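Lay summary. Proteins are chains of building blocks that fold into shapes, and those shapes determine what they do. In this project we predict the shape from the chain. Here is one chain we studied, written as its sequence of building blocks.
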Amino acid sequence: MKRLGILLSGRGSNFEAIADNVAAGSIDAQIAVVIANRAEARGLDVARQRGLNAVAIPSKGLDREVYDRMLVEELRRNDVDLVCLAGFMRLLSASFIREFPNRILNVHPSLLPAFPGLDAQHQALAHGVKIAGCTVHFVDEELDAGPILIQAAVPVLNDDTVEALSARILREEHRIYSEAIRLVLAGAYCVGGRRVTFC
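And here is the predicted shape, written in a compact code that computers can read:
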């Protein structure tokens, strides 16, 4: 059975959605380790309540390369096959990404390549777009630029606030992230340049 490593920094709602699908048997994998870069991250408490292996590796004050080596060691120690970023608020180094080629997934609250980086929902409202959404993609060495697996569109309403739009996008994130994990674990895809095709 494939082993997932979840990286998070905060509440971990995407992690919870993944864990629910694993528990229900709709993702044929086990969560080998949940790692947070903040000891107070709520996601760690949730993981412990579920009886999962939860590890805090605080990142404050550490050089990125040094910290990422610690992350790699913990993921290797737990024989992780697929790394899932679930609100992990750190940029990963190129050396980390090379350790897990096409085996790191991220979910981003926009229809990439629109609005990469922070505050994507605010950017969407500021630009007056009519459709927002979310994207699950492979992580490469550029910010929010890896090959796209799945996207979901969310309409932007006239009276939307950042909070209201974010909540609707988050519901779609919970749905498509687990779907993307299933596709990757099944191995029925090919990556050619920036394109992912399904066979």
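What the prediction tells us: The radius of gyration is 16 Å.
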